[in-house]
Amino acid sequence: MPAAGRCPTRWWSSWSKPPGRDFSTAELLDLIRTSAGAPELTVDILRVGTFSFAAQIAESFRDRRVFLVGDAAHRVTPRGGTGMNTAIHDAYDLGWKLGWVLREWAPAELLDSYESERRPVGVRNTLNSAEANRDRTDAFADDLAGRLPHVWQAGDRLSTLDLIGPGLTLLTGPQGSRWHDLAAGLVTPLPLAVHGVDSVAAAAFDIGAGGAVLVRPDGQLAGRWPSTVESSDALQESVDAAIIGRSLEPAARTHSAA
Ligand SMILES: Cc1cc2nc3c(=O)[nH]c(=O)nc-3n(C[C@H](O)[C@H](O)[C@H](O)COP(=O)(O)OP(=O)(O)OC[C@H]3O[C@@H](n4cnc5c(N)ncnc54)[C@H](O)[C@@H]3O)c2cc1C
Predict the structure, then answer these.
(1) What distance in angstroms lies between residue 16's CA and the mean position of ligand 1's atoms?
(2) Is the CB of 88 under 6 A from ligand 1?
(3) Do 178 and 138 sit in the same domain of this protein?
(4) Among 144, 166, 182, where does a domain finish?
(5) Between 167 and which of 57, 95, 162, 190 could a Cys-Cys bridge form, CB atoms 3.0 to 4.6 Å apart?
(6) What domain count does the chain have?
(7) What's phi and psi for 168, nearest 5 deg?
(8) Pairing of strands 168-172, 192-196
(9) Which of 114, 77, 81, 122 has its CA nearest to residue 98?
(10) Side-chain half-sphere CA neighbours of 233 within 13 A
């Protein structure tokens, strides 16, 4: 099955071939001209490359101080185009965790969550790439569920994503002043930034004017409070869970008012 892409002056074409079968230059020219529907087309072949149509997943993403990221951890077929995306998400997940541990903001235990968070995504994308007719309706369930939405903040072209800091970030609704006091009283080895957002952003976060969300450096929510609270207990619990990489299920991240 041919596929073709176009740079301003260069085109590429690709075909599946059985293992061990190589195309001669004459065969390649014929394939290209047939695909283009132009039997007389002048063609300069600049480069010919091959890659294996493979779907493989590593049994483990970590061995002591060595972490597997990207194609070293999971090889997908080009079907669906998820190889690079999955690789970048791996590095995004691991990077801030290494940063926290090296700064002694979190115990080494946090690094265990790299495999538990990323291998399910790798398994799913590997399987999806291997099967042409696989149901992909769950495609974003593992890696995008619970991620902070982007919302411009009025007047200054600042995204809610720009508010996320290197430690944990608490984003409060427009009437969330109480959260500043609660955050100031927490015991935490890492920076906890607190910012207020407007009512549009609060609605996108599914919180009220007095609510708040706790966000990891990669934008994953570590806690959600629909309205203001009196005690900092639940906030402290969510901070502690994030620091050790304990994955809270989406439902458990939402705390009712107390
Ligand atoms: C034809 C094709 C189309 C694709 N299309 C898409 C797409 O549309 N969307 C998408 O998301 N993904 C796509 N991918 C997949 C994507 O290219 C890979 O998943 C991605 O490049 C993996 O990144 P990586 O950094 O893990 O590995 P790589 O990009 O392979 O990088 C590894 C690097 O390590 C170097 N290296 C290897 N051994 C050593 C060594 N011993 N010492 C030092 N350096 C070494 C290599 O030279 C290489 O530069 C496609 C892949 C192919 C082949």
Answers:
(1) 19
(2) no
(3) no
(4) 144
(5) 190
(6) 2
(7) -100, 150
(8) parallel
(9) 114
(10) 6
Q: Is the pTM of this model over 0.70?
A: yes
Q: Give residue-wise pLDDT tens across range 153-186.
A: 977 789 999 999 999 999 999 999 999 999 999 9
Q: Is 87 in the pocket of ligand 1 (CB under 6 A)?
A: yes
Q: Is residue 258 part of a domain?
A: no
Distance between Cα 156 and ligand 1 center (Å): 38
Pairing of strands 66-67, 158-159: unpaired
Q: Indicate the residue type of 113.
A: S
Q: Is residue 97 part of a domain?
A: yes
Instruction: Quote the ligand 1 centre to 60 CA distance (angstroms).
Output: 19
pLDDT, tens only, 63-121: 999 999 999 999 999 888 889 999 999 999 999 999 999 999 999 999 999 999 999 99
In this structure, the answer to whether residues 160 and 242 fall within a common structural domain is yes
Instruction: Take atom 51 of ligand 1 and give the residue whose Cα is closest.
Output: 78
Given a contact cutoff of 8 angstroms between Cβ atoms, the answer to whether 56 and 126 are in contact is: yes
Write the residue with the smallest CA distance to atom 32 of ligand 1. Answer: 71
Same structural domain for residues 185 and 221?
A: yes
- Give the number of the atom of ligand 1 that is nearest the alpha carbon of residue 82: 11
User: At which of 117, 144, 171 does a domain end?
Assistant: 144
Place of tokens 């994308």: 125
Q: Is 75 within the bounds of a domain?
A: yes
Q: What is the 220 CA–ligand 1 centroid distance (Å)?
A: 26
Ligand 1 centroid, distance to 87 Cα (angstroms): 9
Going from the C-alpha of 22 to that of each of 17, 170, 203, the distances in angstroms are 8, 57, 57
**Residue-number span of the structural domain to which 117 is assigned:** 56-144
Identify whether residues 91 and 110 lie together within a single domain.
yes
Query: What is the spatial distance between Cα 93 and Cα 114, in angstroms, rounded to a whole number?
Result: 7
Of 17, 50, 71, the residue with max ligand 1 atoms within 8 A of its CB, to mutate for a pocket test, comes to 71
